[in-house]
Amino acid sequence: MTHDAAGTSGDRRGPLTPELIAQYHRDGFLLLPPGSLAEDLLDVATAALPEVLTEDGPARVLERDGRTVRSVYGLHRSHPGIAGLTRRAALLGAVRQLLDGSDVYVHQSKVNVKAPFAGDQWEWHQDYVYWLTGDGLPRPDLLNVAVFLDEVTEFNGPLTFVPGTHTAGLLASVDAQGMPLGYEDAPAWVATLTADEKFRVRHSVIEELARAHGMVSPKGPAGSVLLFHPNILHSSAANISPFGRAMLMFVYNSVTNRPEVTGRRPDFLADPEAVALQPIGTPAGR
Amino acid sequence: MTHDAAGTSGDRRGPLTPELIAQYHRDGFLLLPPGSLAEDLLDVATAALPEVLTEDGPARVLERDGRTVRSVYGLHRSHPGIAGLTRRAALLGAVRQLLDGSDVYVHQSKVNVKAPFAGDQWEWHQDYVYWLTGDGLPRPDLLNVAVFLDEVTEFNGPLTFVPGTHTAGLLASVDAQGMPLGYEDAPAWVATLTADEKFRVRHSVIEELARAHGMVSPKGPAGSVLLFHPNILHSSAANISPFGRAMLMFVYNSVTNRPEVTGRRPDFLADPEAVALQPIGTPAGR
């Protein structure tokens, strides 16, 4: 069914079929094959990557090893080419379909590098708690869009979801105090970006949900697009394989859900402008 | 084919069919379903596990977190029930088939716990280099037998092989100096048992081999038995899932390949007796 995702549904509001929309609302995530939303997502992102990774500064976060790039934030603000990607009509159309037709902007963007042999884990967590507590976003009316910049396999630390948990609300967690090991001298907001999650969902809760719903690691070739809900419980293992697992991530937020807290976190973690994006190109994305 | 592994081949020397033997020699590993070699492997091992895990002492190695049990060594010496398992006729028969009919003994045994949420990685390595440098075993005439004590899935840190690399000889590695982080006060031999491998195969070598041969993570229900060569390149990711991944491991060695170095490592890492095992039960294992 996902092969029909781009522009063939006859739905004027966007490229996703009603079946795909229902699947997203049931599972909390949706994997689309390369080219479904915007043909040039992979090429533009891949072309920008070398420059993105070499720019030193606070928006670039290193792994615990202090050498390997873990993530670079704020790409939609610092790289015009990537800003353009966030406005591709088919991509925006799909996002709006999953956010009840609302106008949207990008609250946060980043690349997660997951370098070969060195890319560290992301512990089990939900995303929304960070945007709630950090930026005061009133509701979980956001959508994560992850573009695979490498093939994702069982070996290179795929994102792992507990399907259906996006409807469970805020899960019981433990708020880790202090700075994680290896980041003792970093600013406080860095504590939300490392392999040690600040808000750790209780192990008993994770086990119970995984027993009830199972786990799924969506896999696919470079260029695949993974859409997922800000409240779905997810994690990803370290990448011990010799192959990279870079992902470009856009976090779209409804313009009716703007931050109530501003200035607490850097602009590259919480976009201060929050202006509705205008589409570029055709809704079919081709 | 593996369903026919136990006692149906008509081969008087052991339970493995010629096809399975050929598969082992081609790939460097062989996965057999539960019950193929000895019906009670899982039950006996599972019954012994609670006692094994609570015995404090140098044969028990903790994870870097200093709390979680990583491995317990020397079980064939400390637990009569497990010693009995190592002598099950069908298991011994299969081992002898893969070691050219040689009499064998258990050079090392252990349980790797891979605890839920906490079981750490094993970096890419070959096993034989440790037995060569640590104990002076002249040749790689050994066989690893791993009994799954839990279901092994893509989520709980399965062993991952680069098939066919068992014929590549000793791969270029870097000998890590000093003690790994978290084990600074431990005896020197502990450096060979932690998440940071002492002999690290060069990343360029791993990448080249994985590109040429691919990677495989054998998965299966509890009770499955995984046989693998001491020179196959392998690793396993940390277990971030809520489900355990304990494995019981027997390392069989040919009696013609006895250690030339004795007394350097504790008895629970290198069996000093090296006496040919006599089989218990029927070769069909039922």
Q: What characteristics describe this protein?
A:
three-stranded antiparallel beta sheet, 286 residues, Jelly Rolls, homodimer, 12 strands, alpha+beta, seven-stranded antiparallel beta sheet
| Binned strand content of chain A | 15-25%
CATH topology of chain A: Jelly Rolls
Number of helices of chain A: 7
CATH superfamily of chain A: q2cbj1_9rhob like domain
- The strand count of chain A comes to 12
Number of domains of chain A: 1
How would you sum up the major sheet of chain A? 7 strands, antiparallel
Distance between the termini of chain A: 19 Å
Organism (chains A, B): Streptomyces kaniharaensis
Protein name (chains A, B): Phytanoyl-CoA dioxygenase
Keywords (chains A, B): Dioxygenase, Oxidoreductase
InterPro entries (chains A, B): Phytyl_CoA_dOase-like
What does this structure look like?
Chains A, B: One of its GO terms (molecular function) is iron ion binding. Chains A, B: This is Phytanoyl-CoA dioxygenase. Chains A, B: Keywords: Dioxygenase, Oxidoreductase. Two copies of one chain form a homodimer. Chain A has one domain (3-254): Jelly Rolls, CATH 2.60.120. Chain A is of the alpha+beta class and 286 residues long. Chain A is globular, with a radius of gyration of 18 Å. The first copy, chain A, has seven helices and twelve strands. The two termini of chain A are 19 Å apart. In chain A, the strands form three sheets. Chain A has a seven-stranded antiparallel sheet with strand order 1-10-6-12-4-3-2. A three-stranded antiparallel sheet of chain A has the order 5-11-7, with no helix packed on it. Chain A binds chain B through residues 116-117, 121, 123-124, 154-155, 157, 160, 203, 206-207, 210-211, 215, 217, 235, 237-238, 240-243, and chain B through 116-117, 121, 123-124, 154-155, 157, 160, 203, 206-207, 210-211, 215, 217, 235, 237-238, 240-243.
